[in-house]
Design goal:
By secondary structure, the chain is α/β, with parallel strands linked by helices. It has one domain. It has four helices and four strands; from the N terminus they run βββαααβα. The chain has helices at 58-64, 71-85, 88-100, 119-129; strands at 9-13, 24-27, 49-50, 106-110. Strands 1-4-2-3 form a four-stranded parallel β-sheet, covered by helices on one side.
Length: 136
């Protein structure tokens, strides 16, 4: 009996070494990596496809970087990011990625070292809320 492998989205840190079987890597960041030539983005583990619509707005990022994280500050950031992701085009993009996760493997990521204080942790939740298969 042939068992089909379970397909899913992997949430990653951009710039990290790709997993052995990792395929398409999507950059969910506002800006491409600094000091890296476009032709080297994929080779250096950043991304194959850049989708800044999955990142918080410049205004929300600027606010987030202006002070140290506290529980209340993180909660406010999460509310602001979720509000931005409810915009029709962005919500459709999340729904599309959730649907694709049932048909193809890919990764989505950001540069932040600490996922627990990065929008990608919220993006992980949003994708799951839309029925995405998320790799653990």
């Amino acid at each position: 009996m042939f068992l089909k492998e379970r397909l899913a989205i992997t949430i990653v840190r951009l710039g990290s070494k790709r997993a052995k079987r990792e395929k398409l890597r999507i950059g969910a960041v506002r800006r491409p990596p600094r000091g890296v030539k476009k032709r080297d983005y994929a080779r250096l583990g950043f991304h194959d496809l850049w989708l800044p619509d999955l990142s918080p707005s410049a205004k929300v990022v600027s606010w987030a970087q202006s002070a140290a994280w506290t529980g209340a500050r993180w909660a406010k950031f999460e509310r602001a990011y979720r509000r931005e992701m409810k915009a029709s085009g962005r919500e459709r993009l999340i729904a599309l990625l959730a649907t694709l996760s049932r048909h193809v493997d890919f990764s989505v990521g950001c540069y932040c070292a600490d996922e627990s204080r990065c929008h990608r942790s919220i993006l992980r939740q949003l994708l799951a809320e839309h029925g995405a298969r998320i790799a653990v």
